[in-house]
Amino acid sequence: SPFSVLGEIVVNEVNFVRKCIATDTSQYDLWGKLVCTNFKISFITDDPMPLQKFHYKNLLLGEHDVPLTCIEQIVTVNDTKRKQKVLGPNQKLKFNPTELIIYCKDFRIVRFRFDEAGPESAKKVCLAIAHYSQPTDLQLLFAFEYVGEIYHNPAKKVNGIDPGGGGGGISSASSQQTPLFETYSDWDREIKRTGASEWRVCSVNEGYMISTCLPEYFVVPSSLADQDLKLYSYSFIGRRMPLWSWNHPNGSALVRMANIKDVLQQRRIDQRICNAITRSHPLRSDVYKSDLDKCLPNIQEIQAAHIKLKQLCVNEPFEETEEKWLSSLENTHWLEYIRSFLKHSAELVYMMECKHVSVVLQEEEGRDLSCLAASLIQVMLDPYFRTIVGFQSLIQKEWVMAGYQFLDRCNHLKRSDKESPLFLMFLDCVWQLLEQYPAAFEFSEVYLTVLYDSARISLFGTFLFNCPHQRVKESTEFAISKNIQLGDEKGLRFPCVWDWSLQFTSRDRLLFHNPAPCVQNGAVKTFKRSKKNYSSTLRGVPPALKNGIISEQEFLPRRNSLILKLKPDFLQQTETQSNNMEQFFRDWFAKPVDLHGLILPRVSGTHIKLWKLCYFRWVPEAQINHGGFITAFHRVSLLADEVDMLNRNLRQYKSNSSLQGNCLELDQSRMYFRAGSLSDTSGAPDFLSSSFPFSPVGNLCRRSILGTPLSKFLSGAKIWLSTETLANED
């Protein structure tokens, strides 16, 4: 049965439906049954799919399924009456629809025709989809239904996995777990890992007694007593006390702080917090404050840019936008905002790395822009966060536990005016770094894209709530209403998105891995944190400045700076500091990159690119057969697999082990694409394209690709990234 998820029930269905594959012809349409469940919309067909060959499968979703939380807008059409209507959750439909168009949050457009279906049945299924995809209450999201079933039927599990685990789950052999930072011990381990000896785990918010939008445990300067923290908390917006994020090996700390709303107490409390941060620095270095609200785009601007980007990417007919493509892309401001975040994060990296000062990220509520900036700084500075488990722990620490409002920002309930894709922008910024330094990361861009998609699947609790307290409060209320005994549990345990085996087979999860991350001596070098990695860029200790606080204005950049945001009114001292900063960046880019140390973004126009795999994967006109990142991924995988095979053969030769033992090792290849044999010289598989593995070969409810100007131009471009190009890359 396609409905294998526990708690999933069929709400409505209609037979004799056509799924449109191309907009200008019906010859490729698929016949089948359209089903609405309380989890997804599903299209079930027995038709052969000559134009749609899927090469990867989500275990929770069929090939044509869309999770309800991924639906953006539902449009019903009646051809004969020339009517169309956008369906809200409780609206009536006065005409029988002949067509249903579903606009998805991942930029897909899915179209169904009801020419042969019963008109009343078609109307009912459209209304059911509209109703179930736009719930009025958080507890109506599917995760609650699933968890309720789990607690009433503890023997049942989805795909054999318990809910709530933090498993790294990337490969079956991986025993590493992703720290969820729900416990005292996770924070304590992070303090020890980063060597933050003058910081401590604070449990003053246990039971969410102080702030409902902070985690129960967080890290503060050792010199701040719990009693003082309780007192200071009243002065902060949302009672969000300063949160420690990370420590540099040189002792500089990264701290997040909400604004102080009590104007009379502002200077005094601000000074005390900064003094405590200074005392936690082994060199008693100064504190540098960055007001993110003043120097980065706000959430409304980011949302507006995302809407324009979506309109550009899903525009039909796509080829008509070709002539003005670059100017249209620039007018979205999306890449400009990506550049702003990367620039500003690089500036703050300089302050910690070179000036040895602690950095405080200040933001009104401290739970939007600071999530993104804090995460980017850590990805640049700490190679641990460029591993899969490390990156997942970073998202847990700086987004999930720090109170990023996933429910509102992702608009899971379809009624929030607070929607803004900051999490997507973060993944895009990380993709820019991955694109520039692929070997510095353990994961691939497929992993980043799948992670973005997972935020749109309402089974997982990870990206469902505005804060940890909301999960506890809402799930406790739900448990009481369903007679679920919680025992000592703090709320219900939802499936964790880091349990990737819920969604993908072990083979498909191999696509998450960079095939050759920092290969050294023929083996994958493990990412380790050591002070040695940072030593090449350390400079002198900064001079003590007044009150131990460096204001942002004292490090303003020059007008022609490529790294920093432009600001007016420069002073002579500012010019000197800016020169020092630019010299630091020039020196860094002039040296070979230590992929196990600091990485910095190149931010000039040509280096910031559109993340094509994520935004273009459903646009057949933009697909390049045998092109895109997957071409290089495929070839590097084959080379890495050949190296592995040679190593296995060498070990076998030395130990005279049996042939059977070697076959067993071959089955455990860490590559998605395998060399087969050392004499295998076959080219790339026919199904590879620039949208692999997300889009099938052929069209997805777009106009047919043959004959478009772009397709004619690309017909000769068989390989986007050749081995010759690779050889010439840095």
TrEMBL record:
<dbReference type="InterPro" id="IPR011993">
    <property type="entry name" value="PH-like_dom_sf"/>
</dbReference>
<dbReference type="InterPro" id="IPR010569">
    <property type="entry name" value="Myotubularin-like_Pase_dom"/>
</dbReference>
<comment type="similarity">
    <text>Belongs to the protein-tyrosine phosphatase family. Non-receptor class myotubularin subfamily.</text>
</comment>
<dbReference type="Pfam" id="PF12578">
    <property type="entry name" value="3-PAP"/>
</dbReference>
<dbReference type="InterPro" id="IPR030564">
    <property type="entry name" value="Myotubularin"/>
</dbReference>
<dbReference type="Pfam" id="PF06602">
    <property type="entry name" value="Myotub-related"/>
</dbReference>
<dbReference type="GO" id="GO:0016020">
    <property type="term" value="C:membrane"/>
</dbReference>
<dbReference type="GO" id="GO:0005737">
    <property type="term" value="C:cytoplasm"/>
</dbReference>
<feature type="domain" description="Myotubularin phosphatase">
    <location>
        <begin position="181"/>
        <end position="615"/>
    </location>
</feature>
<keyword id="KW-0597">Phosphoprotein</keyword>
<dbReference type="InterPro" id="IPR029021">
    <property type="entry name" value="Prot-tyrosine_phosphatase-like"/>
</dbReference>
<dbReference type="InterPro" id="IPR022587">
    <property type="entry name" value="MTMR12-like_C"/>
</dbReference>
<protein>
    <recommendedName>
        <fullName>Myotubularin-related protein 10</fullName>
    </recommendedName>
</protein>
<dbReference type="GO" id="GO:0046856">
    <property type="term" value="P:phosphatidylinositol dephosphorylation"/>
</dbReference>
<dbReference type="InterPro" id="IPR030573">
    <property type="entry name" value="MTMR10_PTP"/>
</dbReference>
